[in-house]
Amino acid sequence: MSLIDFFKAKKKSSASVAKERLQIIVAHERTNRNQPDYLPALQQDLLAVIRKYIPIADDMVQVSLDKNDDCAVLELNITLPEAS
Asked: Which of 12, 58, 63, 74 is deepest in the core (most CB within 10 A)?
């Protein structure tokens, strides 16, 4: 192997690129699959309750569930608008 060959960029085959992309998609779907089905509904219910008192956009409420060994933590982040 010459020094020039060492610095040449090795072009990946389209099959290996597709495989890497598929692995990323599968990993992403696995993380989403572990979340309970009720989280989107819970987020919509929380938005409806908060909107009774404060005008708030959909993206201002995030609901997530973190699971550890034998413990689950439901995290709720609400960004409230500035008082005018």
From this structure: 63
